[in-house]
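ok so for the tutorial part 2 we go from a plain amino acid sequence to predicted structure tokens. step 1 is just haveing the sequence, like this:
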Amino acid sequence: MKTNNTEGLTMFEINVLIQQGGKFVIFPYSISRLVKRIKSSNIYFVRPNEYTFKYALKHFLINLSVGWRIFPFGPIYVIKSMYYLIRGGNDYTQVILEDLNYNNPTYTPDLHYLQNA
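step 2 — the prediction. this is what the tokens look like for a chain of 117 residues:
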């Protein structure tokens, strides 16, 4: 799954932003075809002091337009998705950080150069 809003950031910068209040958020949404339901989600990195409304609005509109078609479960999934959108998404910061730290080596800046300067 692709993580949005982390382009150009190193692991060190991501960890610093998370310590300042940033988080990884998932916005679930449902797309209902005639017989089949596709439940999906996108991962967004929300920086400190940034609101999730601009990310949630897209998923809110998708839920309203194509999420309700399968009866009786379509409306149930749409309402459940709306609940998480209103809450600001699901916070998956720890799970995603563990995965990123496992797949990427830890970046520790070499402070040796700063001490000799």
